[in-house]
Amino acid sequence: MHILRTPQELSQTADVCRVNGQSVAMVPTMGALHQGHTSLIDLARQHADIVVATIFVNPLQFNNSVDFDKYPLQMDHDVQLLEQHGVQFLYAPNVDAMYGANFSTSVHVGGITDVLEGSSRPGHFAGVSTVVAKLFSAARPDVAIFGQKDFQQFAVIQRMVSDLDMPIQLIMAPTIREPDGLAMSSRNIRLSDLARHEAVAIWQGLRKAQEQFSAGIRDSDQLIKTVESMIESTSADIDYVKVIDPVTLNGLSIATPGCVIVVAVVLDEVRLIDNHVLV
Fold first, then answer.
1. What is the CATH number of domain 186-272?
2. pLDDT tens-digit series, residues 31-67
3. Quick one: which of 117, 147, 124, 145 has its CA closest to 272?
4. What is the tens place of the pLDDT at every residue in 99-124?
5. pTM score
6. Which residues of the chain form CATH 3.40.50.620?
7. CATH 3.30.1300.10 domain extents, the chain
8. In Å, how far are 61, 163, 191, 233 from 267, measured between CA atoms?
9. Which of 37, 85, 124, 276 does the annotation list as catalytic?
10. What is the CATH number assigned to the segment(s) 2-173?
């Protein structure tokens, strides 16, 4: 695996791949990789000849400096994991390489960034869309893979790609869960043993809501209360539980097949998000 450090190296490498007739898939990450990330990489390998993984802890998307400072870093482990899963190129720039002196441009996606995570984390999605736009601009991948756990993030990037006519196929991969159902996240390692045990209530609530939906319940408030009651049995603080349209992200009073229950909580000072598509 080759490690690239600058946008120029990334761009030149991707150009060579294309000249050689090879398609390129990109898997953007912030590192601290786990099985959820490797599932994205394995999927990327099915859709392209070359896989470029990126590791960059993006300061622009953290509205909380403490959260940024505490984000786990484990580059040696990550490099080994990427090599094991057949990644040919890792793009791992530092902040200066990514943004440079006097950087003053921001990519803002309107509407769907004003709700849910966007409401609770001002500026978060401008940071996400800006860094992803820069990654896409440098590599011009044919395919990019993102996880369903960050459902709103995928919707924002999808809107950006559509609005800016970027010729990139976006694929949303299923959330990978721990054996007890907790969605895999780099943030999970910051949870205390008690908080880690309590965090399972998020998935238990989502699963119970699915059971109710399968039984014919369509009232969103009832489904939301089911999830909330499960989480309220723990020490977690609920930011939101909502039933939303998967495209507009607008709240729905009546749940329909394909709509999404999204959840955000703060547990042990760690923000956890999850979601489930009702079927």
1. 3.30.1300.10
2. 999 999 999 999 999 999 999 999 999 999 998 888 8
3. 117
4. 999 999 999 999 999 999 999 999 99
5. 0.95
6. 2-173
7. 186-272
8. 20, 36, 8, 12
9. 37
10. 3.40.50.620
